[in-house]
Amino acid sequence: MTFARSEQARSELARAELGGRMPTILTVPGLGGSGPAHWQTLWEQSRNDTIRAELGSWDAPSRNAWVTRLDQAIRNAAAPVILVAHSLGCHAVAWWATLTGQPWGWPVAGALLVAPPDVDQADACVSLRRFAPAPRESLPFPSILVASDDDPYCSLQRSFDLARHWGSTFEDAGPLGHINAASGLGFWQDGQALLDRLIGASEQSAAGSTPAEVTRALEARA
Fold first, then answer.
1. pLDDT tens digits for 131-147?
2. How far is 18 from 90, CA to CA, in rounded Å?
3. Given this structure, which CATH class describes domain 21-220?
């Protein structure tokens, strides 16, 4: 936990307030939820600004139910909100954005989307197929999509295509599998750096920068 505390302090120093308010970091796990060794759980335990969106039915998700529960979690959180989604949780975020049509950057000010699976592939499991087709609309907030080049649930090219559809800055994390507990990432310091980068872009958005300017800023920080 020593590292986690120092990382928390670094993160607090690295970011300023969004429109005078510190963001709430809302994690959105995927199929099966995130267990005790998952980096999302470790972030929740070590950061006082981070809470989990309890979507329920982790092992048998329904798209509409998850989107509804996510909407409730966002409304109950202190805005602005930064979403940190993993796996199928990324598609819940994309569907939420598509169905709610929020204004640019509020109440969700940004999203870190990690290892979204390919819900459209023919051999995807039933739980993934319930979220098909993947939305193709640009997200109404700055976002970074992180993919692994050996993810068993999505090819790197398909991950890149999802980033393009969603207007997300694309990050190739290398060979990290599904970027989960099995990847042995622990607290995932690189992910924390990406989160700080995203918060910085969200601050720029809150200051009045256009989506194109925010995207260029995200890419410049890579």
1. 999 999 999 999 999 99
2. 23
3. alpha beta
